[in-house]
User: Which sequence fits this backbone?
């Protein structure tokens, strides 16, 4: 299968678009999806331009891990701010949120290098879309907590994977740099 050689700017633009749409709509589901798209985009494109010296690769891995932790912490602060009444999220969750996430997911799935990677990425995004759909389901409209709970679950997933990436991949590459 031929690989679509598209630069990472398209997938990073999808992450920024989700972030801006989430801020504009004050939607926890869209805000939660932005760091996941950014993280998956980094994982997709981290090998482009390789081989790199191990120190440079370790720096990129640790930086990506730290940025993932910061994004997850910002998401937790946003959810806590909504719950404490520091600012308000919309009561009517955006019915288009799963469609926005689906567009970014399709882009990330289609850019995978092999059919096996495409299937794995598609499975990940199906689970993500199921959660987004459940959080924005019309009968959940009065329950702002469903979207916030989804955002907290995503924040935990981002924190866990970002910490693991920085700790294991970054430290492994640093050991190779010696």
Assistant:
């Amino acid at each position: 299968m031929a690989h679509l050689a598209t630069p990472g700017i398209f997938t990073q633009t999808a992450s920024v678009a989700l972030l801006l749409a989430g801020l504009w709509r004050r939607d926890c589901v869209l805000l939660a999806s932005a760091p996941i798209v950014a993280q998956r985009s980094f994982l997709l494109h981290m090998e482009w331009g390789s081989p790199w010296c191990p120190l440079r690769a370790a720096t990129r891995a640790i930086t990506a891990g730290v940025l993932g932790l910061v994004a997850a912490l910002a998401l937790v602060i946003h959810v806590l701010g909504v719950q404490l009444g520091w600012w308000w999220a919309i009561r009517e969750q955006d019915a288009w949120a799963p469609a926005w996430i689906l567009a970014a997911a399709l882009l990330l799935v289609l850019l995978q290098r092999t059919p096996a990677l495409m299937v794995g990425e598609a499975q990940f995004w199906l689970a993500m879309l199921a959660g987004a759909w459940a959080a924005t389901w019309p009968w959940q409209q009065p329950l702002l907590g469903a979207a916030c709970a989804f955002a907290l679950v995503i924040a935990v997933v981002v924190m866990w994977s970002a910490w693991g990436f920085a700790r294991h991949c970054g430290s492994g590459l640093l050991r190779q740099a010696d």
Summary: Confidence is low (pLDDT under 50) at residues 1-6. The CA atoms of residues 55 and 172 lie 10 Å apart.
